[in-house]
Amino acid sequence: MQRALLAATLVLMVVGAFALALLRPWWFTPLASNWGSIDGIILLSLVLTGLAYAGVNLFLAYSLARYAKGPAQYIPDDPLLERRLFWFTALGIAVLLAPGLYFYAHLVRPPQPKLTVEVLGQQWLWSYRYPGPDGKLGATDTARVSPANPFGLDPKDPAARDDVVVVGGPLRLPLGMPVQLLLRANDVIHAFYVPEFRIKMDAVPGMVTRIWLTPTRLGAFQAVCAEYCGLGHARMLGQVLVVSPQEFQAWLEAQPRAAQALGQ
Amino acid sequence: MPRVGEKPPAPPQGLGGGGGGKEGFPLPHTGLLVLLAALTSLFAALVSAYVVRMGLPDWRSLPKPPLLWLNTLLLLLASLALERGARLWEGGALREARPWARAGGALGLGFLAGQLLAWRLLLGAGYAPAGNPAGAFFYLVTGLHGLHLLGGGVALAWALARDGRGLRACAWYWHYLLGVWLLLFALLLGS
Amino acid sequence: MELPGYHDHRIGPEPRSFWTRYVFSQDHKVIALQYTVTALLVGAIGMVLSWAMRLELAFPGTLDPGRYYQAMTLHGMIMVIYLLTALLLGGFGNFLIPLMLGARDMAYPFVNMLSYWVYLLSVLVLLASFFVPGGPTGAGWTLYPPQAITRGTPGYDWGILLMLVSLLLFIVAATMGGLNYVTTVLQLRTKGMTLMRMPLAVWGIFVASVMALLAFPALFVGCVMMLLDRTLHTSFFMPAVIQFGQRLPYEGGSPLLWQHLFWFFGHPEVYIVILPAMGLISELVSVHARKPIFGYRAMVLSLVAIAAISFVVWAHHMYTSGMNPYFGFFFATTTLIVAIPSAIKTYNWLLTLWRGKVQLTVPLLFAIAFLNTFVVGGLTGLFLGNVIVDFPLQDTYFVVAHFHMVMGVAAIVAIFGGIYHWYPKATGRMLNETLGRLHFWATFVGTYLIFFPMHFLGLLGMPRRYPTFEGLTFVPPSAHALNEFITAVALLVGLSQLLFGFNLVYSYFRGARAPDNPWRAATLEWQAPTPPPHGNWGPEPPPVVYRWAYEYSPPGFPEDFIPQNAPPVLAGGGAEEGYA
C-alpha cells in the first residue's frame, strides 16, 4: 500500500513539474531586449532536464513497485552499460554547453555601442550619467564625491561639464540602439537588473564593470538591485523607460548639464 | 558466521580475497604530512592573495629591515640544531639529543623575537598596517607564519617532556616552516 | 589494558570516571554523539530562524529588515557549516570510520576530543552574537565586503567580529578532525581491508575530509584579512568607500579578492557536504535492496573526480561579479563537466535498486527522497552553471531553490536516513517505525512543495535576499499567495521534525531492543557488539576482512549476504580459487 503510494507520489511529482512548466503561472517577464537567446537556452535546458527528471523518477517508481519481493540479482557492474551512460551524459552536457558558450561570446564582445550610459549604485538608489554632445563621459574622482555630486565629477573637466546626471532615475534608453552600461558604486556592491532585459551586472566600488544590451520594446520597466547591499536592498528600485530615439534625443537635449547642476 | 557446503561466489575482480593493506609511513608522520598539506593550502591562499594585491596600482614597496636576514639565519640554524637532535634521538641517544633540541627551540624563539623586533622597527618608521597594502601584508604574512612556528614550539616542548617522542615530527614541521619562510621572504624582497 | 590490533597503535585503557567516559571522552563513538547532538540542536535553531524568515516573506512587516537579514545570515551559516559539515564529518565520520574499517579508534584520539570542544566553542561564540550590541551580523552567509563591515548592514560592529572568530575556531576544529579521519583511513585499516574494499560511506567521508583540509584554509585567510580590515582598517578587501556622505578610512582594496577566496573554499564546501551524504546513500541503497552497489569502482572514481574538479569551478558563483568576463568560458565548462560524475553516481544508485529486493524500510524511504531531490537540485545546477543562463537567474529564487534542494533537502534526508539506519548499532534500540514513516512523508512531500515552485519564481526574476516584494511591479499577486502557501508548508514541515526529535529521545529509553545486525548488512560495524564497547571489538583481535563490502544476494548461497569478515569456506579442503 505504501509502496504504491510512494510510486504514485514520485509520478505525481513529475506531473506537477511538467504542469508548472506548461501552465506557467510564473514565467519569464516579456522580453524587452536582444537577449532572447537566453530564453531559448533556458527552454532547451528545461526540455532536457525535464526528460531526465521524468526518466529518473519513473525508473525509481517502477523499480520500487516491481522489485518488492526479490530475490535480488547479483549484478555488481556492467562495463558496457556504464560506458554508454557516460557518453550519453557527456553528450547531454555538450548540447547544453555549446549554445551557452556561443551566445555568451556575444555578451563578452559587444558591438560598437551607439550609446554609453553610466549607472551608479549607492545605498539605496540608482543614478545615471549620460555623455553630453561631445559623446564622452567626463573624468571622475572619489575625492569629489558628495551628496550634490554623487558621480564625483570634476567641474573643470570640459568632458564632464556637459554630462547629464539623473539622480534617482528614471533611466531613459532609446529603442533599437545597442547601449553599453558602465556600472559603478560608491559604497558597497550592488547589481543592476531589469528582468525584461534578462542581463544583470554587479556594480563594485573601486571598479567599473560593464554590460551591454539593445532594448527591443517600448515601455516602462523596473530595475531592482540584485546583490545584497544592506538594509535598504529591497527598496533599491528604479524605473527604466524605453522610448523612441527621437524622444530620447529631445529629452537628453532638454536636460540641465552637470556644469549647471554643480553651480559652475 | 554463515556456513555452507558449496564454495561461495567470488566477488568482482580485484575487490575480493587477498592479503592485508600496504605498509605505509609510521603513524606519526602520515598525520604530519596531512597537516602539512592543509598548511600548504593556507600559505598558497596567502601567497596568491598577496600576488593579486601586489598587482593593483596603489602598491608601494616596503623597506625591508636588514634584521630579517638575521632572523632567517636564526631559523636556519634552528632547523639544523633540531635535525641533529632528532637524528640523535632516533639513534637512541636521548641525553645527547636534548641539548640540540633545546638549542633548536631557543633559536626558533630567537627568530620570533627578531620578527617582533622587525615589526617594531617598521611601525616606528611609520609603516602601520592600515593605509599601506604592502605593510598590511607584511604583518599578516609574518604574523601567520610566526603563530604556526609558535605552535611548533609548544609541540617541541611537549615532545621533550615526553622523552623525545614526536621529536622527528617536530623537526620536519620546523623544516617545513623554514621552507615556507624562505618562500615568503623571497616574495617580500621581490615586492 | 592493551588491546591487540594489527598496527602500532595503542588506545588507552577504558576510562573510569564520569568525566572521562561521557564528557572529555577520547572514544570516537562518544565524540560522534557529541558532534551529532550539538549539530542537531544548533540546526534546530537554524530552522527556527528560517521560520522567522518565512513569516516575514508571507506577512511583510513581521520583522524589520535588519532582523530579517540577521536571521537569514545565521540560518545560512548555521545550516551549511555548523549543522551539515559538522554532522556529516564530525558525527558520521567519527562513528563510522573506525568501526567500518575494523580499527579500535581514530589515529589521534586526544586531538579528536579537542576537535569537538573547539567546535562547541565555535558554536557558542556564534550564538553569543545574539547578545552583543547590534546583534548578529546580517551580512549574508557569504559575508561580502564592503557591506559586511560597514554601517548599513546589521551587526557590522560586533556581530561580524564574532562570526569571523567563530569561523576561525571552526576551521581549527575541522582541521583537527580531518587529520584524524584521513590518517585513520590511510593507516588503521584492519588486516584485509584494502582501500578498494572500503565501504563507500568511508570513501565519501575520506574524500570530503581531504577536500576540507585543502579548502578551509582559503576561508581562514579570508576571515583573518576581513578581521584586519574591520579592526585595524587595513584595505585587503576595502576600496575607497563613500557611504552616507562619509569617506571611510579605506583605499585600494579589492572586494573581488574576498569573493575568490570565499568561493575557492565555498564551492568545495558544498561537495564536502554532499560527498559523505552520497556515501551514506550507497550504503542505504545496497543494504535495503539486498543488492551489491552497482559499479563500485566507478563510484569511487566519481567521488575522486568530483572532489578534484570541484576545486576549479568556484567562479561560477561570480559570473555577474565584474570579474574578467573571459573566465566565464572556463568556469562554465568545468562546472558542467562536474555534473558527469554526479550523474554516473545517480545512474548507479538507480541500477542498484533495479532487480533488487527493494524493502521500504525507513532508511530506504529517505534514500529515495535523496535520489529524487538530489536529481532536481543537480539538474537545476546545469542552468546556473551555464554562464549566460546565469545572467537572468543569478540572485533570484532560482538559486535559492537550487541550493535548498541539494543542501537543504538532499543532504538532510541523507542524514535522516543514516540516523535511522545506524541508530540501532549506536544505541542498541530501534527507532519507532510509525513515527519514522510520518517523518518521511511530511519531510519529503513538504520540502517538494516548498522548493519546487520557487524555481519558477526565479524564472520570473524575483530577487533573493528581499524581506518584502512591495513595490516590485513585475511580481504578480499569485506570487505573494505562493509565498503564503510556502510559509504554511514550511511551518508544518518544521513541526514534523519534532516527531524525529521525540523519536530519537523516546526510543533511546523505550525503543525495541535491536539485534546486532537488524538490517543484515555486510559491513564491519555490524559485526561489533551493540553498542560497541571501548576499543570496538572487545579483547579479541579486530575482524579480518576477506571481501568487498557489498556481497548481497550472492547466487547459490543460502544467506542473502556475506559479511566482509566471513572467512572463505573451502569445499572439501580445496584451494581458494576465484578470489583475486
From TrEMBL, chain A:
Pfam families per UniProt: COX2 (PF00116)
E.C. designation(s): 7.1.1.9
TM spans (from-to): 43-64, 85-105
MF GO annotations: copper ion binding; cytochrome-c oxidase activity
The entry's keywords: Copper, Electron transport, Membrane, Metal-binding, Translocase, Transmembrane, Transmembrane helix, Transport
Domain Cytochrome oxidase subunit II copper A binding: 112-254
Cell location: Membrane
Family membership noted in the UniProt record: Belongs to the cytochrome c oxidase subunit 2 family.
PANTHER family: CYTOCHROME C OXIDASE SUBUNIT 2 (PTHR22888:SF9), CYTOCHROME C OXIDASE, SUBUNIT II (PTHR22888)
Name this protein carries in UniProt: cytochrome-c oxidase
From TrEMBL, chain B:
Renumbered residue ranges of the record's region Disordered: 1-21
Heme-copper oxidase subunit III family profile domain location: 31-191
Cellular localization per UniProt: Cell membrane; Membrane
Membrane-protein topology: Multi-pass membrane protein
Transmembrane annotation, as ranges: 32-52, 107-130, 136-160, 172-190
InterPro entries: Cyt_c/ubiquinol_Oxase_su3 (IPR024791), Cyt_c_oxidase-like_su3 (IPR000298), Cyt_c_oxidase_su3-like_sf (IPR035973), Cyt_c_oxidase_su3_a-hlx (IPR013833)
Cellular component terms per the entry's GO annotation: plasma membrane
Predominant subcellular localization, coarse grouping: membrane
The entry's keywords: Membrane, Transmembrane, Transmembrane helix
GO molecular function: cytochrome-c oxidase activity
GO-annotated biological processes: aerobic electron transport chain
Homology family: Belongs to the cytochrome c oxidase subunit 3 family.
Protein name per the record: Cytochrome c oxidase subunit 3
Native species: Thermus islandicus
